[in-house]
Write a structure and sequence with these properties.
2 copies of one chain form a homodimer.
Chain A (H helix, E strand, L loop, with lengths): L1 H24 L2 H8 L3 H7 L3 H25 L5 H18 L9 H7 L4 H23 L5 H25 L3 H21 L2
Helix pairs in contact in A: 1-2, 1-4, 1-6, 4-5, 4-7, 5-8, 5-9, 6-7, 7-8, 8-9
Chain A binds a DNA duplex (30 and 30 nucleotides) through helix 1 and helix 3.
DNA sequence: GCCCGACTGGATCGAACGTTCCAACCAGGT
DNA sequence: ACCTGGTTGGAACGTTCGATCCAGTCGGGC
């Protein structure tokens, strides 16, 4: 059964091209070619066209990114070290891909804000999912939920922004510095709330 | 003399559309129309075509953003409060524009990383300029240059990322939380280095 | 063996893309 | 009054965009 296989190949190819070139830059024909499928198949599996495909690709990329964050936060029982581990995982992924395999949501989200509601909603859910993931990991150290939520929000923000800086500069320094500072912030919050 | 006037109108319109729709999404004809000029004029003033226009538009937007950061850091002699002021200026700018007038560099930079060298370089210079600006403001409180540089890097990262979150969620909470946490980080560094 | 619905390859659509071209324009110098 | 060189409007170029159409291929149920 190629069917489910072809579908997921298309989603994967779309996710990859979307994160590299954005929504407008990634066109349907190259996506199909990268997936080893034909344009007809794309529109067969995604009758909603490019937009529907993009939403599903975003969800796919978001799940992969969530795995990376999970792995990072699981690297140590100390969430301060976990956050740093996330940043270092991102560095590794960026380096092995020549600074191309970054956050699968940022570009597409930014260029469609307020213009393609479906995509914006998918991006929103992705960010919320990541934030929940980080927040619960922090709460395991005794930090109250609201404080952990606030921290997680800034952690996601900083990781996103630091990845932007690192990609533009082709240099892992911004991400490594972000890792240090975020660890500091988390250590603070933990020290303050667990005596 | 319309000449210089038309040119700057084109640059301004390009900067605006670039930040909202990205490099691929902002096409030449709408830019010209928004500037009240004709396509011929665009190619008259920018023989290098869309790419040359984008580079100049990026520089224009970067300077405006630098003004915002300057204003924020000048709001208080305490850099911790200055950083928070920057975030709140960004909130104000985003709110009055229905979450569309954000960082003029992020989208375009992300979608052209590794594919349009001129744009990538312009984005790199913009980020470096902002970082220098923040770093010197922090150094005025006695923080050594290398520590201030590291802080400034994370500050830019976090502001960029928080703006992404705020725009996607149409909610100023991520930026306001980032302001709090960044103030905390700066206060730390200052307290550590000035006895 | 046949049929039917899922799937695919390739041609094709109108619209929009970036870019080019040229005739017209309009000021300033002579 | 006339040229001249920077500037403009509008049509046109070939290409690519997202999307549609259709004739076919294919495998599983009858």
């Amino acid at each position: 059964m190629d069917s489910r296989d072809t579908r997921t190949r298309i989603v994967r190819a779309a996710a990859e091209l979307l994160q590299r070139q954005g929504y407008e830059g990634a066109s349907v024909k190259p996506i199909a070619k990268a997936a080893g499928a034909s344009v007809s198949s794309v529109y067969h599996f995604f009758p909603g066209g490019k937009q529907e495909l993009a939403v599903e690709a975003l969800r796919h990329g978001a799940a992969e990114y969530a795995d990376l964050l999970s792995e990072g936060m699981a690297a140590s029982p100390d969430p301060a070290e976990g956050v740093a581990a996330c940043a270092h995982l991102m560095v590794a992924s960026l380096k092995t891909s020549s600074w191309v395999d970054g956050c699968p949501v940022a570009v597409t989200a930014l260029e469609t804000v307020g213009r393609v509601p479906g995509i914006q909603q998918a991006a929103e859910e992705a960010l919320a999912q990541w934030q929940r993931l980080v927040s619960t990991a922090i709460q395991r150290s005794g930090v109250p939920a609201d404080t952990a939520d606030e921290l997680a929000s800034t952690i996601i923000s900083t990781l996103e922004g630091a990845e932007l800086l690192s990609r533009v500069r082709q240099d892992d320094l911004p991400l490594r510095r972000a890792a240090t500072h975020l660890s500091q912030l988390v250590r603070f919050a933990v020290a303050e709330h667990v005596p």
